[in-house]
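# nightly structure sweep
# worker-07 picked up a monomer target from the shared queue
# config: single-sequence mode, recycle default, output format = structure tokens
# input follows
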Amino acid sequence: MEVLLLFAFISGLVTIFAPCIWPLLPIILSASSSGGHRKPLGITLGIVLSFAVITLTISYIVKIIPFDPDVLRYFAVAIIGFLGLTLVIPVLSQKLEGAVSRLSGKMGLVSDPKKTGFWSGFLTGFALGIVWTPCAGPILATIATLAATQSVNLDVILVTLVYVIGVGIPLFIFATAGSTLFSRSRFLSKYTGQIQQVFGVIMILTAVSIATGFDKTLQVKLLDAVPTYGNFINQLETNDSVKKELDSLRGRDGSSASTEKGKAAPEFVGIAKWLNTDKPLTIKEQKGKVVLVDIWTYTCINCLRTIPRVNNLYEKYKDDGLVVVGVHSPEFEFEKDTKNVEAAIERFKIKYPVAQDNDFATWNAYDNQYWPAKYLVDANGVIRYTHYGEGNYEETERMIQLLLKEAGQQVNTTIDADSDSTIAHETNSPETYLGSKRMLFLEPQGKAANGTQNFTLINSPKNNRFSFGGQWTVANEYSASGANATIRYNFNGEKVFMVLKKGDAINGKIRVLLDGKVVDAAAAGIDVKNGEVTVTEDRLYEIIDLKGQPQNKVLELQFLTPGVEAYTFTFG
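# output follows
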């Protein structure tokens, strides 16, 4: 449990860097620009307490007192908009402060509420906590699913509290810094009234954007500008220790995941309503077709960023036998409302069937932990490919083509070599496996069969493709170098890493060329000395470090020693 609490705290801390929280920062800054010295504390406590309480209890409250949870959202929007008006209209602000002062005095909350500003800050923060939907990693996803299925226990509460404490620390520092800046700066103090009015307009515009749903569009655009955050948070929270403790939190032993590749795909179960289709779908009925199961929710910004790609796959391959099913598993109670889901389907132009998994029955059947998550099921109903989070769009499409061809379809559609970068604004090449089991990007045929064989090196591989040259022995998980073994990769990225194993070689030697020349010290990774990598142990090696913006380059690796086992390329 200690490991899970540590990672929950770290995940909360790094949330300040998440684009999902950036739209709130101007409001926090504006609210901190006026009021007493305790206002930043009030704002911070308001945000973290309202978020924690609503996340853990809303499903219980709605069950006891049936009401539309969207009422809370609109209530929060009204508060944010009204507080913005008080900054724009000074007379309104004075009346509000007087009312808060009289109420606080009667309740005996503070001796001089006007000077502390705690309760006005708390009100602002509480409203923000209601409307804030963070970028969810596996830890927060587990909390949300357990809360939604009314499975909250002391451990879940503890993990949630530790997470929001992590969130609160950088928010408090940010709010305090803003308050200090405005209270101590002589230059800014001259324009306090005008600055508060500008911030008031920002708060009003934010309230309007939340009410209209534009805040989600804005967050998607911000994530486009910082595409690596979603992958970072998933990598942070997916180590084996955290996975094991999350399984324990969900009451599972983690010994047998139903979604393991090569296992039969679970059926769609516990679906509250099917949308975009005249009848419910089953995996069994899709035998002979390829099924892409996309688990998502409409407030998950990472999910929204992947929808255009899923739409594109559906339109390209629906006539070739691809069936796409969107499984909508809600992170928050208000996302269970069919009208809200239908509005999201219309807004994002989703044409494929969507199943409302309000009780997380299908989520649990797939042993899922992520938003978004994709499962590719072949024509025999077997899961052949999984991907969690964003990215790997080209790899996913290539796997769809492979499964369609296995099903007897003649697929001639060209995969755009730049699809990951042009659609997703992600500049790095995808993780590339050199073993036959997961090989996808070998030129020209995509993959190679097991066994020892001679390859002809291609002069100019396509973008994000590699070519073998010389003799290679291909195995399930790696390819071992033979005589004149060479790899040429047309990659995008700043850094290139490679998992290498000595294999039969005592110390393997690999010459590194970049754009046809032996790599110099300026572009060489830390494991490259004088243009060569020496494989002395089985580990990840840094081959290239361009020390700046990601670039498009051609990497060539000349294996001077036979027997070196090459497993994967990764790019950073």
